[in-house]
Amino acid sequence: MATVERLDRHILSNGLVVVGEPMDTVESAAFDFMLPSGASVVPEGCCGAANVIADWILRGAGDKDNRQLGDALDGLGLHRACAINSSHITVGAALEAGNLAEALKLYADVILKPRLEQDQFGPARQLAVDGVLAVDDDPRQKVMLKLREHFYPSPLGRSPVGDIEELKTLTAEKTRQIIKDHFNTSETIFAVAGKYDFNAIAGQMEELFDVERRKPLRPATVGAKANKYTHINNDGAQVHIGLMTGTVKPSNENYYNARVAVSILSGGMSARLFTEVREKRGLCYAIGARYHGLKEAAGIMCYAGTTPDKAQETLEVIMAEFKRLGEGISEQELERAKIGLKSALILQSESSSSRASGIGGDYYILGRVRSLDEIKKRIEGTSVDSVLGFLRSHKFENFTVVTIGPEEVNIS
Amino acid sequence: MEFKEKTLANGLAIIGEVNKSAKSAAVGFFVRTGSRDETEQVNGVSHFLEHMLFKGTEKLGALEVNEAFDRTGAQYNAFTSEENTVFYAAVLPEYLAEVTGLWIELMRPALREEDFNIEKNVIKEEIAMYKDVPSFDVMDRCRRLHFEAHPCGNSVLGSETSINGLTAEQMRNYFVRRYAPNNMVLACAGNFEWEQICSVVEEGCGNWQVQDAGRKLESFGGSKKRDRLEKANLSLEHICLMSAGVSAQDSRRFAGALLAEIIGDDVGSRFFWELVDKALAETATMQFGAMDGTGAFYSYIRCGRENVVSVLDTVRAIFQKLAEKGINEDELRKAKNKILSALVLKNELPMGRLVDLGSNWVYLKQYRTVAEDISAIKAVTVDDVHSLIEELNPGDFTQFSIGPAQSG
Lengths: 412, 408
Fold this sequence. Notes:
The complex is a heterodimer. Chain A is 44% helix and 19% strand.
């Protein structure tokens, strides 16, 4: 299968970046607008504002009111996607390729001309408040949000869902100001993947986003980390354990060694955590670890859910496995980790949505898009020695732990 | 796209849709068994058995099984529903035959006592985990209330009591009856060699014995009862509504899917505009689940305690308006566009295609192309949806809620 990979790139004169990956076997297209207004970027005291913004901007834009805009988006049959992370609000959609140009027109209005009507602010904010309460009812999700909050230095790990007290004091005026300050087209990335004509898209983007260049946003000032262990009491059935330890960022030369190491720890079902925690001891149903990287910092985050009498043992087995990794890995483990990572990469490459978010994320974090071929080669380039060398120079020693459940654990 | 089919003398159906332009391939065993095929004493056995298949055979231990899968880079797993247990893997084309061979081996498991005892703990942890997920818990409880004594109300996971009481011997007996070749389908989708897969299956499964693996099929309209459970640690009210639907064999299932989309898609539906857009509810969705010989509409609504009364009043008003005035052409058109694009997106991936391919064979013994499904959806008229509303009356539902202590 000798297919030549092509990556498209076009930068508007105002700085807006357009990146694309064409896929010749699909009828769909997917796109993402990455707006530099994520959870850690909004001002202090406005935790949750990104969520309110993501809702409010879709409640009417350009010549369309809330209902007209919703109907127009639905009429195109598009599947809306919205994600808020530390750095960005990402709005986008997956749809039949023929409707792409129409969809971009609507999204240009959403980004450049949101109506931000006063009477639509209340419901947008209320939904954000209820969203925080919904997370309170879902300890599995909550424990991982709290973990990021405590692991990353403030405000990088700030909750993308929000804080009830801060949301309650958020006003329409303040939110409008945040949008004005942060919807900076000069720092926006537009990513598209699937079936498209790049020249047509680049031309349309030039036309739709013909706005002046703006000054870059000031990066957030990074503060201190929170405490090492936090327990939140909840009278539920399980103790939900979140554990995170620092590792190299995606831009680091050891990034692929780190990814392979995480895969040996928790890639497939033969990986160490699943084997030791679930298969041999029956301590958990859900157990897994994954790499989590921001531009500024990165870590390996692990989740386990277990009934209270097994929580202590579960935590101890997990920490022991993290520490044991640097003592040695086998060739077979390395090979399984590599094929697992490569195979996942190719399987994801069949989905236009996965590719759009993949190339957009790359451009933001690395300043360029990696081809699948490059990633494959870098994974293939790792060895037992390179992974062990990395593990020995980057030991897993400090852990941030959060538990939610009826009982605490002992961190020693 | 080319469809292939073969049925072995023992009844095992092998089906495949070959797409040479795909970068991957997917394979799955669809076993026609689930919680509806269980008695009360062994409730949860289908799902527990699904776990036990990964524990290996007379020749392979659990760790060897996991290693064998991981050596191929497969994305593999299994799931159990009320009526199907599905084992699947998505891989690069060159590994499909190997992974298929592995699944075939696992379909004749050792079911060792010591593995059974360790895995029992994992199953009980899974039950505990889902107790902490109110959106799941409320659906499970509502299904029981809706279906009453009908077996479709059985919990897939079972209860801690039923799992504690279950023996390996009971599981072995259930396995022999249900994992019979005439009760299973092996499906493949994506880029693979049909002849190669066929010979792997024939060699591995040809000697499996036919069994009498029936299923009682009775349609059921639902109890229409109401119930509520209080959980002090919750912040929001979680509400599930269920009402009668049409079956997976019924040609009106496409109209059913469109009706659910019109009432309860997560954006742009009637629930969305009346409940979510106005921030009365944080989430309000409706889905249609077509099953073997029966079917149901499920709604899930999550809202603040202070809004419960107005949310339920609004829901009643939505269904009343639906019964009186029906739907209009424009909302049907939008619902069709959304369902069609979801269908196209899903079927672009061999793994997504596998699920539809296998399900159509399980329920209809029929191969349906994506194009045929697209035409069937396009052909649904406003009148078709109206007859369905009239016959099924979705406003007449069973209701289960879980929420915090009621104030005042």
